[in-house]
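Quick one, probably user error.
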């Protein structure tokens, strides 16, 4: 690596990743292009006009959005406009090539994986820390296959058995990141009502709560329960997922899921508001040890083995 290109040298670990990480790499390409543009003293609108892009197109490229990465021709045009050093160009183009390699989840039918969900899975695969709050279900990454099946069947009552199984398979694939050597830190805050609401059957719930107990014992997993008797809890009305990435100026991202769509927040002021909300919820929830005791108590009382 050239000692004159600290920006490029920081990208080297990402070029050596064994597994494809298209969402992360698209974001890195965008962040690096934005940084190079700023170093060249060009405003986004000025740069877009110079290379013949619309400002919206350049904004999308720099934000790393879209199912596919930008084309090599578009990235070359931008780097030429910015007068980028040849070696830096070569590294960024290699990063772009790696960004085009599909992740394991992208083999699924797009009906199961719309663009917004594709992005979420890719972001979770790339995150170093994932914080989540759930008011209705056990967080997806912590679900058992049987519990996931019950969630899918409840939410999509007309789905075929094949579609249900493919969705369960996808969820199981997502949870595999918990077993990776570089697994992200998971911090889940769950409303107590989630433990009490029977999905599928009491047998399904017994297995699910036992699974939560097991996961809560992992060093990189923290589970907290917001008890029902907490008044005026700071809980938002919808589930929240907060994702943090390692270095390279990547922004924290908040994911808010709706019935058939989702919102991704990247503005620092907005994401900070959700971080503070999750911090407040963590303070109001039982601590991890007391939360584990409550899960065990609920498991024994409501879902005893027969």
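Nope, works fine. Designed sequence:
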């Amino acid at each position: 690596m050239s000692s004159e290109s600290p920006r490029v040298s920081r990208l080297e670990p990402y070029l050596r990743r064994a597994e494809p990480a298209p969402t992360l790499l698209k974001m890195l390409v965008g962040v690096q292009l934005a940084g190079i543009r700023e170093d060249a003293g060009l405003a986004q609108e000025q740069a877009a006009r110079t290379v013949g892009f619309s400002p919206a197109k350049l904004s999308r490229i720099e934000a790393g959005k879209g199912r596919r990465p930008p084309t090599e021709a578009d990235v070359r045009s931008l780097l030429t406009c910015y007068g980028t050093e040849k070696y830096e160009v070569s590294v960024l183009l290699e990063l772009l090539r790696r960004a085009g390699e599909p992740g394991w989840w992208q083999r699924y039918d797009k009906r199961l994986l719309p663009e917004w969900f594709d992005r979420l899975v890719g972001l979770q695969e790339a995150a170093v820390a994932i914080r989540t709050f759930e008011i209705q279900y056990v967080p997806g990454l912590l679900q058992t296959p049987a519990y996931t099946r019950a969630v899918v069947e409840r939410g999509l009552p007309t789905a075929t058995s094949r579609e249900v199984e493919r969705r369960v398979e996808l969820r199981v694939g997502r949870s595999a990141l918990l077993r990776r050597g570089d697994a992200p830190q998971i911090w889940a805050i769950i409303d107590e009502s989630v433990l009490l609401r029977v999905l599928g059957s009491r047998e399904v719930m017994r297995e699910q709560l036992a699974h939560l107990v097991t996961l809560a014992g992992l060093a990189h997993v923290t589970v907290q329960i917001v008890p029902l008797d907490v008044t005026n809890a700071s809980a938002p009305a919808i589930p929240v997922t907060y994702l943090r990435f390692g270095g390279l100026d990547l922004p924290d991202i908040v994911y808010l899921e709706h019935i058939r769509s989702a919102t991704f927040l990247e503005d620092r002021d907005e994401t900070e508001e959700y971080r503070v909300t999750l911090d407040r919820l963590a303070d109001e929830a039982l601590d991890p040890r007391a939360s584990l005791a409550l899960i065990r108590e609920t498991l024994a009382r409501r879902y005893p083995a027969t």
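Residues 6-99 form a domain with the 434 Repressor (Amino-terminal Domain) fold (CATH 1.10.260.40).
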